[in-house]
Design a protein that fits this description.
Blueprint: H1 2-15, E1 31-33, H2 35-38, E2 45-49, E3 62-63, E4 66-70, E5 73-79, E6 89-90, E7 113-119, E8 123-128, E9 136-142, E10 145-147, E11 151-155, E12 160-162, E13 168-175, E14 185-194, E15 198-208, E16 212-218, E17 224-226, E18 236-240, E19 247-258, E20 268-276
Length: 279
Amino acid sequence: MKIMSVMFAIFATAVLGGVSFFSFNQLTSGQAGSMSSLQNNAATYAVSIIPGAAQRDSPYHYYPPDIAIPTGTIVAWFNNDLGQPHTVTSGNPDASDEGKFFNSGVMPATANSFFQYAFNRAGNFTYHCEIHPWRIAIVSVSSAIEQGQYFKLSSGVGPTWNLAKDSRTLVDFTPLTISLDQTTPIVYNVTITKNGTENVFSGTFVTNGEALPLELIKGVNETRVYGPDFSSAGAYHLEGSFFKDNADYKILISISLINSKPPTNPISDEFSFKTVSSS
């Protein structure tokens, strides 16, 4: 837990800078650049190449090393290992499909160097650094969608979350009855109950006229929330020690304010998922 806390601190300090975005529809494939050009694209999720990543004894290279996301998610990798060039290259080292889906090329060893890619198809995508090929990470992409009356839920793992396989999953709540203009503030309320009776989380999240991407993370000793990844845009993260094996959960999602005003009619849905633990 101590190492994880240190990595979160590094991640928050080095990655989560003040960045604004436009619609992710502007980006459909891999793109590299600097922080200034990133402001013209809407990444959802940030992965850090951590300080010291070039060392073989580093606990991580990419952090988080394994993520589960819905289709349509744009992931941005930041090279925070200053002084060391890196790549983000799909496939395993020296495999026949190495670089088939995405390849950043050499990311400069300068502040805010990044690469981003839109995952528009389901599957498991391993990737590595061509310069330091002993580190391999994975992005699992799911096309699972559940349609409610007021929200569409997209999930990185679907209705069953196997905690033995995925310690985290990104879920995306998209309103169906209001327009998303990437400008108007929207206040979302999220309540999670466990096994029908236990209220394990209640919190408020704000986006600038966007859907709500919320990553659920199996915690150890505490419950905490951080994000969004890019100042006023991108994924929020909920690390919960209450996520346990073999349990049933319900998420109540609602919108309480749109541009500081309550909606004319209630906007609320409830979605269910369960956790299992099997290899």
